[in-house]
Design a protein that fits this description.
single chain; 275 residues; alpha+beta; Phosphatase 2c, domain 1; six-stranded antiparallel sheet; five-stranded antiparallel sheet; globular
Length: 275
């Protein structure tokens, strides 16, 4: 079970300025699933969108992970993540069409599924996934944001982007269109690695070097590390909701070989040409 190789701590906070917390986090450590969303929309619609995203994603993936070992397809986690994200996207998009209170609502998303000594990552928008390995922080995602595009085109500098008032302008989100194309990737997960999922309320307020220092020095106490990260964001202004999930790999977790009944079913499926 995933819970035997994965330690998870998570924390979300309204911050110093906002009245409501429109972030949502969901953890299913037993199945190796973590997800974080940062909602947007009036009348607290962002709160609805982010909760719909994380609940739909985790519930759908929990069922899918139980079939990973018996599937012939090598990329089952990637496919399951993509399908679950688009299911959540449709639900959010449809809710916005039938209820005026939720019109135009959307949410970012960052998610990870741990399976077979790797982690499958997905993200949409500017919520991020980092990895701390050997005390070194690495950003594993690219923000879908206007500022990121401008920095890469050389229109503005990275330091100017950090001071810009347009930091929240994302170029991709769940719920805006009837379909969404998530960014998907696999990463080899090694014992001792700590994966950091966060909303922009954290990384906009806390420098990467400080995230690295906090996680690396407190990796033996993940709840304390999560508390320090959120408090650092609030100490630096806390202008947005702040959310973080820390997932630490505590040991190897190779996929279990399918039992004889699963192998027989797979053989019969190939023989008859069924799925």
């Amino acid at each position: 079970m995933a819970g035997s190789f994965l330690e998870v701590a998570s924390l979300t906070d309204v911050g110093n300025v906002r009245r409501y917390n429109e972030d949502s986090i969901a953890v299913d450590a037993a199945n190796g699933i973590v997800a974080l969303a940062d909602g947007m929309g009036g009348h607290r619609a962002g709160e609805v969108a982010s909760r719909m995203a994380t609940d739909t994603l985790v519930s759908g993936l929990a069922a899918a992970t139980r079939t990973f070992e018996t599937r012939v397809r090598q990329h089952a986690p990637l496919l399951a993540l993509s399908q679950s994200i688009n299911r959540a996207n449709r639900l959010i998009h449809d809710a916005g069409k039938v209820d005026a209170r939720y019109r135009g609502m959307g949410t970012t998303l960052a998610a990870a599924v741990f399976h077979d000594n790797k982690v499958t990552l997905a993200h949409v928008g500017d919520s991020r996934v980092y990895r701390v390995r050997g005390g070194q922080l690495a950003l594993l995602t690219r923000d879908d944001s206007l500022l990121r595009d401008q920095v890469e085109l050389g229109v503005i500098s990275a330091s100017e982007a950090r001071r810009s008032h347009n930091r929240s302008l994302v170029t991709r989100a769940l719920g805006i269109e009837d379909r969404v194309a998530p960014h998907l990737a696999d990463d080899a997960a090694l014992p001792g690695d700590v994966y950091v999922l966060c909303s922009d309320g954290l990384n906009d307020m806390v420098e990467d070097a400080d995230i690295e220092l906090i996680v690396a020095s407190l990796s033996a106490n993940l709840p304390l590390a999560a508390t320090h990260l959120v408090q650092a964001a609030k100490d630096n202004g806390g202008y947005d909701n702040v959310s973080v999930i820390l997932a630490k790999v505590t040991g190897p977790f190779p996929a279990r070989a399918p039992g004889w009944w699963a192998r027989l079913r797979a053989w019969l499926a190939r023989l008859t040409g069924t799925r």
